């Protein structure tokens, strides 16, 4: 433990000093295949030459100006995001939690101005993760993160996932929004069913409720389409993005239709750094690579490869309960906690993360190659064999 850094993370005893493509090196010179990608951030891998080039070029031109003025990279990035989505307008910020905060504020402003001040309740889902700031934490449906920080923001109701009757019971005249991750990421790679989403969209339309998708983790190519909602039968009204948006530079975005975003007027919301030229130029470069049908199709193929092979393994090893996911977000749920799993992978030169002690969450860079996937699978198979024998 480093004495002068707040103890907010349980860290692995590794100091990482260098990265290239899907690999990281520690200060002792050990090389690791990165199956975490900075938790779904470095989708183009580490130090992608195009990203590095844009960082250098933009840093020599203009790094920051206030949002009191326009800047060209922000204008161009907003154009890419709106042209390729349902949204008409973008609010830029710096992180996932900030994108969620912006969505909460926008939904409430919309509710107040269209239906009155009592219309402020937001229905979110159990098991969800929306971030650590007080608003985002209030939306997060996991007691483990909320405990110790109460009182949280009033007006949030949590209902079990994929249970439409519970959601219907929670809806009332004060409901302004329903917020969800189309696939719960941190909660353990749990997809929402198409039928459930269709019903939610129907209720939202009937009652004039805003549907907010938090795609901070699963957006921007991770599932094999630019946005995860494209593989669902519904379209949201507000979309939260971050993580892969800057491929490592801090940027977040909250997208919405005009009808809703028009309730943000000068002074409603702001961010000093949000949408600065450096992050936006990099984000634009990252999106130009990701938003390519061939690149996205490769993600789908690699997702099928890894999921199919994991399903095969699950047949041979009873300790695996279920394989879930889409594209290159894959969860392997075990029947029992696996305290030795991440260390086993580290000893074999692979970085992984485990959620809730028994869900291996795979989030490799989207540029991962088949031989790298196969190396991961071989090591994982060895771990399963070893655990079965001991
Ligand atoms: C779905 C989702 N929303 C929001 C967040 C919060 O993002 P950040 O850590 O950038 O604030 C996360 C982070 O993991 C996330 O997975």
Instruction: Quote the distance from N terminus to C terminus.
Output: 31 Å
CATH-level-2 architecture of the largest domain: 3-Layer(aba) Sandwich
Class of secondary structure makeup: alpha/beta
CATH superfamily of the largest domain: Type I PLP-dependent aspartate aminotransferase-like (Major domain)
> Which distinct ligands sit in these coordinates?
pyridoxal-5'-phosphate
- Could you spell the SSE succession in H and E letters? EEEHHHEHEHHEHEEEHEEEHHHEEHEEEH
Q: Could you say how many structural domains there are in total?
A: 2
Number of strand segments: 17
What fold name goes in the CATH topology slot of the largest domain?
A: Aspartate Aminotransferase, domain 2
- Major pleated sheet: 7 strands, mixed
Query: What is the CATH class designation of the largest domain?
Result: Alpha Beta
What tags apply to this protein structure?
single chain; 390 residues; alpha/beta; Aspartate Aminotransferase, domain 1; Aspartate Aminotransferase, domain 2; 4-stranded mixed beta sheet; 38% helix; 19% strand; globular; binds pyridoxal-5'-phosphate
